[in-house]
Amino acid sequence: MRAKLKGILISALLAVLTISFLYPLYYMLINSLKSRADYFARPFGLPAAPLQFGNFAVMVSQFKILNLFKNSFVVSALTVVLLLLVGTFASYIFAKYRFRGRTALYLAVLVTMFIPSQVTIIPLYVLFSRLGLVSTYWSVVLSYVALFLPECILLMTANFHGIIDELLEAAEIDGCNYFQKVWNVVLPMGRAAVFLAIIFYFITAWNDLFTPMIFLQKMDKRTVMVALATLMGRYTGAPTLQFAGLLLSAVPALAVYIVFQRQIIRGLSVGAIK
């Protein structure tokens, strides 16, 4: 009886959490299909016929949101690729190599997690300005890599610690060099951490407003979140357009989560079997 009650409570809690996560999407969807008058009359009600799909057409044709998607995707994808390249090899060394000063160096990397990004934004801006990187994708990407790398190393190092040393020794006996061991053993065994990093840092970079607003000053380089913030400030009397833009901007992040969350489960299964 106690186990059954516990199961019911857990199910109820998960249902509440699911509803709380999905409700913002539902709210944006119903209001993006309303006219301006319908929204102000019934902000929490279902949209009245006819549905206003023209709100999405305005975002695509006039607001050029697809071009903004390109900018956000380039920034987010480059961030994830660089994080995985640097984070994977650094985490493997911290997890499986023994050398003098390893613990001190690892702690020094982790300490940088507690430095607020607002503290470093002015020095970074001065540095990128001197290098001619302001208003380029690289200024935002490199800022993200510096900000996210300690967390990425912490996540992957903890995961790579669980890889059995005998597997790495067997790969070395078979003639694998350092890079081959990472590719053939470490990445397959640690794929759960890798795909979790892809999901988390892609979505974080996609949704960030502060960093691209500082560095990307050219209009054609703006990310979708910066442009939507401008839209909300300029078109405060057109909330249905705002909801349409916010809903469209959430689609790529949701797609990344849906695609890669299955890989996390598969990665956990592979690690358990091996």
Topology diagram in text:
Elements: H1 2-32, H2 36-41, H3 54-61, H4 65-96, H5 102-111, H6 117-131, H7 137-160, H8 165-173, H9 178-189, H10 191-207, H11 210-215, H12 224-234, H13 239-273
Helix pairs in contact: 1-13, 3-13, 4-7, 4-10, 7-10, 8-9, 10-13, 12-13
What would your notes on this structure say?
- 29% of the residues are buried.
- With 274 residues, the chain is an all-alpha fold.
- The protein has helices spanning 2-32, 36-41, 54-61, 65-96, 102-111, 117-131, 137-160, 165-173, 178-189, 191-207, 210-215, 224-234, 239-273.
- The longest helix is centred in the last third of the chain and has 35 residues, at 239-273.
- The protein is 79% helix and 0% strand.
- Mean pLDDT is 86; it is low at 269-274.
- It has 2 domains: 1-51; 53-273, Orthogonal Bundle (MetI-like fold), CATH 1.10.3720.
Summed up, what is this model?
This protein is mainly α and 274 residues long.
Search tags:
single chain; 274 residues; 2 domains; globular
Give the CA-CA distance, first to last residue: 37 Å
Within CATH, the superfamily of the largest domain carries the name MetI-like
The average pLDDT score comes to 86
Q: Level of helix content?
A: over 70%
Total count of strands? 0
State the name of the first-level CATH class of the largest domain. Answer: Mainly Alpha
Tell me the series of helices and strands, N- to C-terminal.
Answer: HHHHHHHHHHHHH
Supply the helix-strand structural class. mainly alpha
Quaternary structure state of the chains depicted:
single chain
Number of domains: 2
Count of alpha/pi helices: 13
